[in-house]
Design a protein that fits this description.
Order of helices and strands: HHH
Number of domains: 1
Number of strands: 0
Length: 93
């Protein structure tokens, strides 16, 4: 098990985005408890969901861009094509 911190350049922005989503989600909970209209709540939940999805996408792309490169190392163009295609298709997750 690796005990060293596993940090990437994008981690601070991911944390910032998730903290914002956390605060937003708390606001949605307050909206529900206050009896706000369902349409308003649904719109805000959608915004929270999008923020979390974007954080996940950024994390996965960053991992693929950095960690995968460390594991596979230098490769021939033909062998590299599969890795590059995997990285590209992962953008649609």
């Amino acid at each position: 098990m690796n005990t060293q911190p596993h940090l990437h350049e994008t981690h601070p922005q991911i944390v910032k985005r998730l903290k914002r989503a956390d605060g937003h989600l708390r606001g949605v909970i307050e909206m529900i408890e206050a009896g706000r209209p369902c349409l308003d709540i649904a719109q805000q939940l959608h915004a929270v969901e999008k923020a979390i999805a974007q954080a996940k996408k950024t994390l996965i792309q960053d991992h693929l861009d950095h960690c995968l490169e460390e594991v596979v190392g230098p490769m021939t163009r033909e062998r590299r094509q599969s890795i590059d295609e995997f990285r590209e298709i992962a953008k649609y997750l």
